[in-house]
Amino acid sequence: MNSDVKIKKIESCPTFWFEQVNRNFLYFSFNYNTHIMRSLPEKTIERLSEYRRTLYRCLDEGKTHIFSHELAEMHNITAVQVRRDIMFIGYTSQGRKGYNIGNLIGVIAAIIDPADVLNLAVVGYGNLGKAISSYLLNKRPKLKIVAVFDIDPKKIGASTSVVDCFSVDRLREIISSRSISLALLTVPADASKQMAKALISSGIKGILNFTTVNLSVPPEIYLEEYDMITSLEKVAYFVKIADRFSQLS
Questions:
Q1: Do 19 and 78 have their domain in common?
Q2: What is the DSSP string of the chain?
Q3: Which CATH number does the domain housing residue 81 bear?
Q4: Per-residue confidence band for 148, with pLDDT thresholds at 50, 70 and 90
Q5: What is the pLDDT of residue 142?
Q6: 134 and 209 in one domain?
Q7: What mean pLDDT value characterizes the chain?
Q8: I want to staple 192 with a disulfide (CB 3.0 to 4.6 A). Which of 71, 188, 206, 213 is the partner?
Q9: pTM as predicted
Q10: Which range has highest mean pLDDT (198-207, 226-235, 237-246)?
């Protein structure tokens, strides 16, 4: 068994249920009438999300079944890794047909999606915030953008917003009234730490940080940080290395 997986028996669980604890995602599966709570590693969660996105595309193309090696090729990983991930969530292929795409999407959804709709907000409605809001709108039925926040009076209450835009002064009020659990932080770097503190004190449980400042949050808050500049520089570095090798060959 994967050493990253923590197992804990519980007495009752009426349906699939999960929550975020210490940067691990928990879910319940059923085995021999005993409810088991498993903690999935972050990388497994990431791959499952990526698989589902690919599987949706395959469905759109009229495909009904897929083999592990096909899915592996689409994600530049090994078929062994794909089979391990899918077996880990308790799903098996149908012999020579491979995995049933529709069923596999459903199983992944039961594992990683919230039981109910999870409301989220974008904080910082500049160019990046607008782009993210537009992109995520209606992207996933269980993840719903219900508010955006900014300090610019011209943006607050503007009819051009894809969702309602509020002043950051109303952060606590709107987070509470709209039951917002997750925030995407796209404010300028110098405002990121102060805004993160305000979000946490207002009841936010998870933050996706798009700023260039690394944040420190309490252990009960799930934090994911994405630095586009660092990712770009990493790609540029490997392009440079590849160019050097090509010049030597």
A1: yes
A2: --TT--EEE-S--SS----EETTEEEEEEEETTEEEEEEE-HHHHHHHHHHHHHHHHHHHTT--EE-HHHHHHHHTS-HHHHHHHHHHTT----GGG-EEHHHHHHHHHHHHS-SSPEEEEEE--SHHHHHHHHHHTTTBTTEEEEEEEES-TTTTT-TTSSS-EEEGGGHHHHHHHTTEEEEEE-S-GGGHHHHHHHHHHTT--EEEE-SSSPP---TTSEEEE--HHHHHHHHHHHHHHHHHHHHH-
A3: 1.10.10.10
A4: very high
A5: 87
A6: yes
A7: 83
A8: 213
A9: 0.70
A10: 198-207
Q: What is the pLDDT of residue 9?
A: 31
* Whole-number CA gyration radius for the chain: 21
105: Cβ–Cβ under 8 A, 6 or more apart, which residues? Answer: 52, 55, 56, 59
Paired residues of 38 in beta bridges: 7, 27
Given phi > 0 = left and psi -120 to 50 = alpha, else beta, which region is 216? beta
